[in-house]
Amino acid sequence: MYILEGNIGAGKSTFLKMLEKELSYLTIGLEPKNNWHEEVGGNSLLYQFYQKPKRWAYTLETLTLFSRVSQHKTEQEQKNPFHIIERSIYSGNYCFAKNCYENGFLTEIEWKAYQKWFSFVATEVCQLPHGFIYLRVDPVTCHEHAKLRNRPSEKFMTVGYLKQIHQHHESFLIEKNDILADLFTVPVLILDAHADFEHNRSVFEKQCAAVEDFIIHTQAQMIREDGPYISPRLE
């Protein structure tokens, strides 16, 4: 299993759907975002978070952690090495929950409680992925994408917030600051996704080829070290 990471509005869902069509042996798992986008009492939980982050941050982060653990556990039980899921417990912790704590949206007690849950599921429940694929897009472009898709829950999301989330992705996936020791061994593919891959075939083909080469390389490593998975490209 691989994990696609990236900022809000980076184009993750679109990219995964295009990959699945292009590479027949790949399957994908989209982020279970309906759990926090779904409207209750007229507004979604995400909408309420952007309105009153101190009130709703802990509720939102614990719900997303539960949803991502459930997805991760289900996918790893399939033992499919050619599967890519959208987002993870790792970016949930190192990018979103951490950003809430640094902004004072989570109290010290809430942050410590969240960390206990994250540490448990990351070490006892969720197996490490074969690799991360980082769809890297600057925050201003992400904000433009978010405005175009016009989701009610993202109406009050700011460029400033996206800049913070971007920096946390950089710290987690590129600089690898203050992360679990086991995550240092997980390879990361960085894809520059500023160009319009959705409407420019040549751009997408280059990114698709990079993903396929990344999968071939990491699967070859597994074959040498663990067996018995064989990539369709290596047969």
General description of the model:
With 235 residues, the protein is α/β, with parallel strands linked by helices. It has a single domain, classed as 3-Layer(aba) Sandwich (Rossmann fold), CATH 3.40.50. It is built from nine helices and seven strands, in the order βαβαββααβααβααβα. Helix 4 runs antiparallel to helix 5 and helix 7 packs across helix 8.
Work out the helix count. Answer: 9
The topology string of helices and strands comes to: EHEHEEHHEHHEHHEH
State Rg: 18 Å
Structural class: alpha/beta
Strand order across the largest sheet: 2-5-1-6-7
Under CATH, the homologous superfamily reads P-loop containing nucleotide triphosphate hydrolases
User: What is the end-to-end distance?
Assistant: 19 Å
* Strand element count: 7
Helix content: 55-70%
Morphology: globular
**How many domain regions?**
1
Stated plainly, the CATH topology is called Rossmann fold
CATH class: Alpha Beta
Query: Can you name the CATH architecture?
Result: 3-Layer(aba) Sandwich
Can you give the mean pLDDT?
87
What fraction of the residues are assigned to beta strands by DSSP?
A: 5-15%
Main pleated-sheet profile? 5 strands, parallel
Task: Give start-end ranges of low-pLDDT stretches.
Answer: 226-235
Write a brief structural summary.
The protein is built from 9 helices and 7 strands, in the order E-H-E-H-E-E-H-H-E-H-H-E-H-H-E-H. It has about 240 residues and is an alpha/beta fold. The strands form 2 sheets. A 5-stranded parallel beta sheet has the order 2-5-1-6-7, with helices on both faces. The chain has a two-stranded antiparallel ribbon with strand order 3-4.
